[in-house]
Amino acid sequence: MVINGSKIKALITDIHLIENYNMDNISSVSYDVTASNALLAFNKTNKVIELDDKDSIAKMYNSIDFTDGYVLKPQQSVLVVLNEKINMPDNMSAHIRPRTSLTRLGLISNIQHINAGYSGVLNYLLYNSSPNAYRITPGLKIGQIIFEELESDVPKTLSYENQKNQSYQNEDGKEGSKIYNDYVGKVVRHFKGNYYFIENIGKDSETEEDFVEYRALYPRKDSAFWIRPAKMFFETISSTRKGNVTGQTKRFEVVEDLAKDHTEN
Questions:
Q1: DSSP assignment letter at 65
Q2: CATH of domain 5-162
Q3: SS3 assignment, position 72
Q4: What is the pLDDT along the chain (265 residues), one digit of tens a residue?
Q5: Where are the domains of the chain?
Q6: Element (H, E) at 233
Q7: Angular region, 14: left φ>0, alpha ψ -120 to 50, beta rest
Q8: Cβ pair 142, 33 in contact under 8 A
Q9: Strand order in the sheet with 252-254
């Protein structure tokens, strides 16, 4: 059930549903989210980017402070960091919808789903599909968030905050895609032929570098569990590299068929 503006207002006060809010942005059944002074612009690259190439994905974005405004050119997309922080309880989900006023200018945005248990500052795609350039500024009402009550609370094990691949929990909106986190729970094959299970992707406490935590699916005397920097784990290699018995072009590749034992080649 979609909740009305009065309940949104009460939940902002009672459980901090929205932080850094403006009560004037509440309407009958929604809240208008606004642009902060930060955005991520896409850097153009001439190479094909693999979706598990963490380094290339990170280099796709240029963080920009647009306190004095930003000119969004025709056919250009940006990820606008929102002012508001959203704190979802376990009995609600939400989604952000495009604003009609922007759509009629040819400024297109995505529908952003927000899971029960999510907390953080989102960024929101804005695409200029028109032939005209527009100047966008901080405080722009960029979308409207609709909150829905669930029939019952989501079990704690399924709440977004407790998911292994909850890539964006407690985010500040200033990072791009973490699609490589979709590999959590997958079986991968090393180029030398052995199989591993990806347990999680974590961060170094000092450098905040991403590390992959993975488990060997074959007997080892040293350790079944390993960690490796994500940029190395997902890197591209030569199919003719020494020791590459599989001929694959990634250090680790996701596999579905475990029938062949490449280590016996």
A1: E
A2: 2.70.40.10
A3: strand
A4: 999 999 999 999 999 999 999 999 999 999 999 999 999 999 988 888 877 777 788 888 999 999 999 999 999 999 999 999 999 999 999 999 999 999 999 999 988 999 999 999 999 999 999 999 999 999 999 999 999 999 888 888 778 677 766 677 778 877 777 766 777 888 999 999 999 999 888 878 888 788 899 999 888 888 889 999 888 888 889 999 998 999 998 899 888 765 555 555 4
A5: 5-162, 183-264
A6: helix 230-233
A7: alpha
A8: yes
A9: 225-229, 210-216, 195-203, 187-190, 252-254
Please state, in angstroms and rounded to a whole number, the distance separating the CA atoms of residues 248 and 52.
14
pTM greater than 0.85:
no
- The closest alpha carbon to 23, from 12, 7, 14, 36, belongs to 12
Would you say 54 and 210 are in contact if contact means Cβ atoms under 8 Å apart? yes
DSSP-based three-state secondary structure for 231: helix
CATH fold label, 183-264: SH3 type barrels. (2.30.30)
Q: Which helix (H) or strand (E) holds 126?
A: strand 123-128
Q: Amino acid identity of 254? A: V
Same CATH fold assignment for domains 5-162 and 183-264: no
| Pairwise CA distance, residues 154 & 89, whole Å | 9
Distance in angstroms (rounded) separating the CA atoms of residues 46 and 41: 16
Q: State the CB neighbour count (10 A cutoff) for residue 144.
A: 18
Residue 30 backbone phi and psi in degrees, to 5:
-155, 170
Cβ neighbours around 149 below 10 Å, total? 13
Tokens coding 38: 């930060």
